[in-house]
Write the structure tokens for this entry.
Amino acid sequence: MKPNNSLLNRVFHFYYDGFRNMSGWGRRVWVIILIKLFIIIVILKIFFFQDFLYKNWHNDKERSEHVLDQLTNSSDNYDR
Amino acid sequence: MIGNIDMSLVDWSRAQFALTAVYHWLFVPLTLGLSFMLAIMETIYVKTGREEWKRITRFWMTLFGINFAIGIATGIILEFEFGTNWSNYSWFVGDIFGAPLAIEGILAFFLESTFVAVMFFGWNKVNKKFHLVSTWLVAVGANLSALWILVANAWMQHPVGMIFNPDTARNEMVNFWAVLFNQVAVDKFLHTISSGFLLASMFVLGISAWYLIRKREEQMAKKSILVAGVFGLLSSLMVAYTGDESARTVSKVQPVKFASMEALYEGKNNAGLIAFGVLKDTDKKIGEKKVKEFAFKIQIPGLLSVLTGGDRDAYVPGLKDHISGNEKLGIVSTAEKMQRGKYAREILTSYIKSRLNNDSAQISAIKGVFRDNDFQNKYFRYFGYASIEKPEDVIPNVTTSFYSFHLMVVLGFLFIMIFSVALYLLFKGTISDNRWFLWIALLSIPLPYIAGELGWLLTEIGRQPWIIQDMMTVSKAVSQISTGSVITTFILFAVLFTGLLISEVSIMIKQIKTGPKH
């Protein structure tokens, strides 16, 4: 059987070998990266950082009306 | 719709953003600078073919990799915060912020998934020149990535190249080049990347000094000091030059921030530059705001006038000029700006009412007003002043602005001295014998981090009360969310980032103690 030497295959093996032969510090930082990305993208984004305007208003027209309302209201958006 | 939200919501939202940005900035500058130092070291290796330089490059690349990996994605949180905590602001800035951030995201993705991988996995797998090109591309790409974020930040300091669309309540970009080549963006980019180069140089110098103190890896340490010394000296001179340029631009586009940086309340001719000063409270006031005075100061006579106006007799306006106005200099008083801002707000309110009433003639007439340059330049540019209660509210915290600026400048001069001494001792051949200097170099590693954070403190605190200079106050930008959730995420971030920082430092220390592979 002819070995598969396509570019895609070479790129795949480049990354595969790179990760397989990674040094100890490399493995440690990858564990940290994965934990960090899980916390940021899964926990923080889903539970704490929903887009305020997209969550509370249905379309851009309503969102812009809300922001215009905020901009033209003479008081600050909080009580001093 | 506008509820009674506790004042602490704004404070907590600000604190959370500051915490995230401060931590994020602990990781970024080392990436910016060390990537170029790796490229320089690897170039020497490829040019000379000496394996020693390959070993040196690979050692510093390990530390670069640790910092890069730990810091990656910490900036995404800032983008989350825009959408959640600062939704009015996010909407108002429209594509001005979106476009640069999207370019940054795409650049970062391609950079990180390709050339960084070649840098780390490609030794002995790709040819030397391709590997070198990849290392240079990582350096250029990382710095270009920073450019787009800084362009977005510069727009907040000096909004240009846009027009406000009253239909969508968004600013729309009309001149991309004006946004990109905004003088604040150019100054900020050059000043920021050169400060990153400086920080990385101090990092390499300090760690190399540790090896010399421990009498280990002396050849590698001295070669690294050579690169760090030259790169660091050039960078610190560039930081001084770009810092000066940046201050001149601030004096033109954010004059209140500039006067606060110098604690200059009364404008004057032949104004001196404060080299060192200690502020104290007084009973004098501007409106209801207390005025600071110098308990002690050392100043260079006339230099502030020379730097800002080109000659010793040039008048440098003080905070009082900006609050009360100065007709001779064409400075509009804050009270007048407040009137203009209120007028712009009235026009916008009329537009909203016309839309509600389906009054097409009125809608068309007001749209015409918004397209008029005179209205944009004379009135709408002061839109944010409509939310200012008292003229003195536009004065930022003078104490913080003054000390953060002056401490940063002092540190800047200290860095020039440290790199100069390092090179002098290295060429004299006595650097290993001067342990006092090696200890200074080692203990100086945190100082460029402090200087960088002070710079951002000045940039952001000095701009208060604005989130977008003259156009939107911070309090108008905040979303009506619960203070409790902001406090919760503040604590989460504090724990997450502290954990990341501890991980980074401990993995790095372990690698430094292990040293380069033989």
Remarks:
- Chain B touches chain A through 61 residues (CB under 8 Å).
- Residues 5 and 159 of chain B are 29 Å apart (CA to CA).
- The longest strand of chain B covers residues 273-286.
- Residues 1-5 of chain B have pLDDT under 50 and may be disordered.
